[in-house]
């Protein structure tokens, strides 16, 4: 059985399309992937959609396991983290919902190692809120859509009814403030 296998060997087994290796990887890294997806999506999407993103991360791992770089990586964490982050951002881009009635979702700050302590994290969130609320409503919509929901300028222009050049101007003003 593969349960007592080291990471490098697990990666090799997955690369050889061993389904048991995928199950071990899912058991070992499920919480890690959920954590990344939850930090990026927050409450912007319902629970079911977040679960689908998490599942898709492991489907992608399986589909592209032949491409795993076992020479340069000895663990799945960076690889899975990248897949999870990109899939979560893509899920946000695909949603047409824009939650501008309540901007609180946009103020969730991930708990990276350098911001994991409560007071520092709270100070970062406070500064972010103050900066965002200084923007006009249109600038705020553009800024949050672009930087939080990672939508393209073209999509933001279409959703807001603004010209692309206007969206770019609002983003520039938002960054200067």
From TrEMBL:
Family annotation (InterPro entries): RNA_pol_sigma-70-like (IPR039425), RNA_pol_sigma-70_dom (IPR014284), RNA_pol_sigma70_r2 (IPR007627), RNA_pol_sigma70_r4_t2 (IPR013249), RNA_pol_sigma_r2 (IPR013325), RNA_pol_sigma_r3/r4-like (IPR013324), WH-like_DNA-bd_sf (IPR036388)
Keyword Transcription: yes
Keywords from the UniProt entry: DNA-binding, Sigma factor, Transcription, Transcription regulation
Pfam family, one: Sigma70_r4_2
A molecular function GO annotation: sigma factor activity
Keyword Lyase appears in the UniProt entry: no
Boundaries of every RNA polymerase sigma-70 region domain copy: 27-96
Domain RNA polymerase sigma factor 70 region 4 type, residue spans: 127-176
Organism domain of life: Bacteria
Example of a GO biological process term: DNA-templated transcription initiation
Listed PANTHER family: RNA POLYMERASE ECF-TYPE SIGMA FACTO, RNA POLYMERASE SIGMA FACTOR HI_1459-RELATED
Record-stated family: Belongs to the sigma-70 factor family. ECF subfamily.
Name under which the protein is recorded: Sigma-70 family RNA polymerase sigma factor
Species, as recorded: Blautia faecicola
């Amino acid at each position: 059985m593969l349960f007592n296998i080291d990471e490098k060997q697990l990666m090799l087994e997955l690369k050889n399309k061993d389904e048991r290796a995928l199950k071990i990887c899912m058991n070992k890294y499920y919480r890690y992937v959920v954590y990344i997806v939850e930090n990026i999506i927050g409450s912007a999407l319902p629970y079911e959609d977040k679960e689908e993103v998490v599942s898709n991360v492991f489907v992608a791992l399986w589909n592209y396991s032949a491409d795993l770089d076992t020479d340069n990586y000895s663990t799945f964490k960076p690889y899975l983290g990248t897949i999870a982050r990109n899939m979560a951002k893509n899920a946000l881009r695909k949603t047409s919902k824009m939650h501008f009635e309540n901007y609180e979702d946009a103020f969730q700050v991930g708990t990276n190692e350098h911001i994991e302590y409560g007071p520092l994290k709270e100070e970062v969130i406070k500064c972010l809120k103050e900066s965002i609320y200084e923007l006009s409503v249109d600038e705020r919509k553009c800024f949050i859509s672009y930087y939080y929901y990672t939508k393209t300028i073209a999509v933001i222009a279409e959703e807001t009814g603004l010209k692309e050049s206007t969206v770019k101007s609002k983003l520039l003003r938002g960054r200067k403030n």
